Amino acid sequence: MAVGTVSSIRIEEGVRVDPDRVLRLAARLGRIDAAHLISATRQDLIEQFARIELAVGQGDAGQAAWTAVEVERLADQVGMIGLARVARDLQDCCARDDRPALEAVTARLIRIGERSLSAMGVLAGRRG
Q1: What is the C-alpha separation between 73 and 48, in angstroms, rounded?
Q2: Angle at 25 between CA 21 and CA 26, to 5 degrees
Q3: Helices within the chain (DSSP H only)
Q4: Is the pTM of this model over 0.90?
């Protein structure tokens, strides 16, 4: 590669959603209540993503870690296993106080989070 050449990397990460967990939720709660839970969880996750971005932007690793714990709990509740894993990765970056990794994993959390929300909307019978 020549000096001055800029490369572009296309990022493709698989979204991992456990459809069986969604089906178990529907069986346990009923379809309507499960859809309400998924909808509420989607909204909660969107708010948590904004909180994480704000905390990371302000250099508050403690708040970012605390919020990542909540993202992990919410994601696990509705079968977003890939998102839960990235939330754990973010907690690890906060514990190590690794700023570059924290920023990279935050970006990854948001990317996977958005795609997970979309996938969950489809699984729940909604377009997300």
Answers
A1: 11
A2: 120
A3: 19-29, 31-57, 61-77, 81-96, 99-123
A4: no
